[in-house]
Amino acid sequence: MISLVTLYDEAELGPRLQSWLASKDIACHCLAAEIHAFPDGEIRVRVPEPVSETVVLICTLDHPSEKTLALTFVSDVLRSMGAKRIWLAAPYLAYMRQDIAFHPGEGISAASYARLLSRSVDAMVTVDPHLHRIPDLEDVYTIPSTALHATDIIGDWLKDRLPGKSLLIGPDRESEQWVTAVAARCGQPFRVLDKERLGDRQVVIQVPDLSAEGLQTVVLVDDMVSTGQTLMKVARALRSQGIKDIRAVFVHALFGPETAAEMHDAGIGELVSCNTVAHPTNGIDVTIMMGEWVQQQLQA
Q1: Which of 49, 93, 234, 249 is exposed most, by the fewest CB atoms within 10 A?
Q2: One-character DSSP codes across 76-88
């Protein structure tokens, strides 16, 4: 028997994971940690039921400054209740973009955050963390850490949803690894664009002229979307070339409704994300990937 403990689990991954594990004859029970906020901003956490020696703590780490303290407190409670192994299932892992000090005196939050989480749990799994200058999670995490990739399930999702004359586009070089793998999986051609970032919301992108290629659909593929500025720049350029069916598929959705409306206004008709972060655009399920990782851990 293992325990699945959800924390801020808006995406309801806990019950779905419980159902998948049960289909593999893995006994587990799922419960939600309780978090009480006091008027002054302090929190109190409670795990309302006994737990097994093996606990999978499920917490997607968007809004991490709020969630991480609760995760640390809950981990301590689980230890006091007899948990011997705590495995963190964090479909989205935060604090990976600041992987070097860009200016004197800056902290390297990717390394700092890794030290913090490594003290709270015994192993971790996540989906498509933003690995750029850090090649592998275990270069900064001192616990066994696995990065799963959603490119296969995205490619499978796209396979039967695209007309014959389609093109996948990675909006910048950082997206190349995702668009390459997704295109190979769904059997569609792709291109990768070049981008120069001038600020948080200012980018310059070189978009080639595709007007003569007779494209029916263009799909923008990326790992995460926050401000949406990059996708909007590309979409406007494509729309000016007469391309009408522009879609975007990505792993992590980190934007609000105003940004979604802006992206639709820019010409992106469909926005689809994986359910690594609870979001209205969720359409691709990562449950099976997470479940297979838990199954492998139990068999190790």
Answers
A1: 49
A2: HHHHHTT-SEEEE
